[in-house]
Structures are given as C-alpha cells and as structure tokens.
Write a structure and sequence with these properties.
The protein has 431 residues and is α+β, with helices and mostly antiparallel strands. It contains nine helices and 20 strands. The radius of gyration is 26 Å and the shape is elongated. The structure holds zinc ion.
Length: 431
C-alpha cells in the first residue's frame, strides 16, 4: 500500500473519532498503527475496524446486515450473522428434548478477534481445522454470554487459509492454570507425567492415539495426541500450536498434525508440579478442572444414595421401569453416596463410589444390602452429615452445575455431635 493510501485510511479513521480522541492522536500515529496490522497481513477493512474499536468507536454491525462480523463484536439476539472463522473443535453432544434423546453438535470457532462456542442442531458441513464462511447464523444470550447458533437456515462455505489474517493462527502463550475451554491454540512448556498408547476406530479406520497428563508449576491437565510425537514419561516438552478442547467443561490439550512438539533441555521438576487447592466458588467459576483438592462440610445426602441397581449393558442406574436404553434387565447392585459439600464460599455435588462409601461408613456393600433402606439412610447420615471431608480429584461441569469426581476422599472432622447441631441450626436459619 502506498503512503498516500495509508494516509487516506488514517484520515478516514480519524474522522470517525470523537473530538477529545482526535486531539490525543495524530494522523501519522494512526497510520503507523494501521501499518502494523497490514504488515501482519490483516486486510485493510478489518484493520480499520480493529483500530476504530480500540479508539472506542462502536463498529458492531446492525442486525440484518450481511457484512462479516468479528466473533468479538457479536451481539446477543442478532439474526443473519455472517462470520469467517476456523473450526477449532466440533463434537456431537446428546441432550434431552421433551424427554427424547437428540444429538446436537457443539464446538469452538476462532477468528483474529478471539474464540466463541457454537451450537448446531444438525451436523454442519465442516470439520476441525476448516476455514469457513458461515452465513445466516443467529445469536442468543445465555447467562450473560453470547451464544452462537446454527439453525436450519445456516449456510457454510469452505474458504482458503488466507481468508483469515495470519495472527489468527498465532498460538497463545499460557501456563496450565491459564488454560480455559475458550483459549484456542496454545504455546506452553510442560512435563509429561504419563502417556498411554491406544488404538481406536475412527470412521472404520484403526487409528493410534496417545493420552496422558501434562504438568507445570501451576497445575496438571490431560492431553490427547493424534500423531506420534514420541512423547515419553518424565520428559519436558515445548508445545506450539496445540489446541484446547473441553470435555464436560474440563479443558484438555489436543495435539494434531498442526502442533509442534519439541523436547526441551530445561526440565520441569515433578516436585514443582502442584495439586491445585481451591475454594469451592473458584471451582464453580473455573469450569471443569483436572487434579485439584477441595474440602468442605457435607450439608446434604441426596436421593439416589445407598444400594442402587445398574444396567449390565451400559452401567446406567436403573429406574423403576428398567434402563432408559435397554429396557427391562437384571440389575447389578452397587453402592454409592451422592452428597453436597459446602465450604462457605460455594458448594459442589460429589458422588462416592462403592469403595469410598464402604470406607466412609465402615460397612461392606453386602452388609448394607442386609439393612432396610431407612436403617441404611440413617447410617449414611451418621457417618457423613455435617462432617468435613477433604477430597482430591477432578471437577466436571455441565448444564446442571459442577460435580466433583473424587479419587480420594477423607473425613477429616471427628467432632461430630456439636457440628451436627451447628449445621442443623444454620439450616433452620436458612429456611
Ligand atoms: Zn442400559
């Protein structure tokens, strides 16, 4: 672009600023800023939009317009949305609609302005990694955030990689505790704490994948590698271009053919890798997390605790009329305790499995089977209600809130009687 053109665009931008801003910046400075974007390969129209936004000018596109909108500029309740973005991830998801299971698709898009999750009612004609133009999408608002939806009017067109500026594909430098499900592609250093090779079927082809755990001085995170990066336990690696995907709100690092993985000399010591200890409100804010420790008081033992029957086919808990999928079956008995733990800052549901439950109540499942349900229920209450437990494990999050899946759970509070009275009186106050 010639200097003359550049100045023209700079004047254009300047003319849209308010008087105060106009005084604060010269055409020369605007031109220099603009040039930086152009050097990065950002198309001039977008570079101008981005600068206008930076200078506080509202550039969002009015509803009904067919101009492309940047993900960061999307407003809730807009129809006719047009985007150009890369598909970071796309996954089927089973939901219940009017009591019937239905498969929808959800995933993450990114452009030069950031990332945004989407939901599609039918499988959209796009795959992970594709650059696409999406027209006729619409947005809603959910819990204060913009939700992008593809209805049956959506149109998807494949684009070349140069449809998006280069900066879109620059990975973000992160430590593990900075990783959220929306971070997109990342650059990071981490130690391989474990790695396991697995063979799976993808569209009738056998594929080898590697799964394991990465750690750094801020925490741990699961990973999946779709290529053989020769990852070995104990080695420290530098990853550039891995992308983050989430499973029930828990972020995971995915390494595909676009990722660069190199062994690095500077080792991360295993003793420097912590299990993050969190307050429960942090757990609720942060979405799913791998390997964290929490503690709190059991304030409720929920229905569905005690002896339950599971489907021999799919392991789901049976309802009165059998399995939701397999109908009438001979159930296999199991023992579990569902409870709510609260630390004063927030609360979390947790489900104890048979081994954990047996240890906490000091009886085996067979002994529990001999008891009548009321007897068993009071035993659960005596053993757990109002007591402080300390747990280590993973937190998952979905539509219904967070659930803590404990690997270990300890009752750390032995002074039961007075605490029971204390919690009872607290609960009465709440009512
Ligand atoms: Zn079943």
């Amino acid at each position: 672009m010639t200097n003359e053109n550049l100045n023209q665009h700079a004047q254009d931008i300047l003319s849209r600023l308010d008087d105060q801003k106009k005084k604060a910046i010269s055409a020369q400075e605007v031109a220099e800023e603009l040039e930086k974007f152009l050097d990065y390969g950002v198309p001039v129209k977008q570079a101008k939009q981005t600068l206008l936004k930076k200078f506080g000018v509202n550039t969002s596109v009015p509803p009904g317009s067919v101009e492309r909108t940047l993900l960061a500029d999307l407003q809730p309740n807009t129809r006719n949305v047009k985007l150009v973005a890369q598909v970071v991830s796309i996954n089927p998801k089973e939901i219940m609609v009017k009591g019937q299971p239905r498969t929808i698709f959800s995933g993450l898009l990114r452009d030069e302005s950031g990332t945004l999750p989407f939901t599609a009612w039918d499988k959209p004609a796009m795959n992970e990694g594709d650059i696409v133009e999406i027209a006729n999408a619409y947005t809603r608002e959910w819990r204060g955030k913009v939700q992008l939806n593809f209805g049956n009017q959506v149109m998807i067109e494949q684009k070349e990689k140069d449809a998006l500026p280069k900066e879109t594909f620059e990975p973000k430098k992160v430590t593990i505790n900075e990783i959220t499900p929306l971070v997109g592609t990342v650059e990071m250093s981490a130690k391989v704490l474990s790695v396991e090779e697995k063979e799976i079927m993808v569209d009738e082809d056998k594929k080898t994948m590697f799964t394991g755990i990465l750690g750094d001085s801020t925490g741990k995170i699961p990973f999946t590698a779709w290529e053989d990066f020769k990852l070995s336990k104990e080695s420290t690696v530098h990853i550039k271009g891995g992308y983050v995907k989430s499973f029930r709100g828990m972020p995971q690092v995915n390494l595909d053919e676009n990722a660069e993985v190199k062994k690095q000399k500077k080792q991360i010591k295993e003793s420097d890798i912590p299990t993050r200890s969190l307050h429960l409100f942090e757990l609720n804010n942060k979405q799913g997390m791998y390997d964290v420790s929490v503690s709190g008081r059991v304030i409720e033992i929920q229905q569905g605790s005690g002896i339950i029957l599971r489907c021999p086919e799919c392991n789901q808990v049976l309802r009165e009329d059998g399995c939701r999928v397999h109908g009438k079956v001979d159930g296999i008995p199991d023992l579990r305790i569902k409870c709510v733990v609260d630390d004063g800052t927030g609360s979390v549901k947790t489900i104890m499995n048979k081994d954990q439950a047996e240890r906490v109540i000091g009886k085996t499942m067979d002994e529990c089977k001999q008891m009548n349900p009321e007897e068993l229920h009071s035993l659960l209450n005596e053993s757990l209600f109002a007591r402080v437990v300390s747990m280590k494990g993973n937190s998952l999050q979905d539509f219904y809130g967070s659930t803590f899946l404990a690997d270990t759970i300890e009752v750390v509070d032995e002074d039961v009687k007075s605490k029971v009275d204390h919690v009872r009186s607290l609960l009465e106050e709440l009512e």
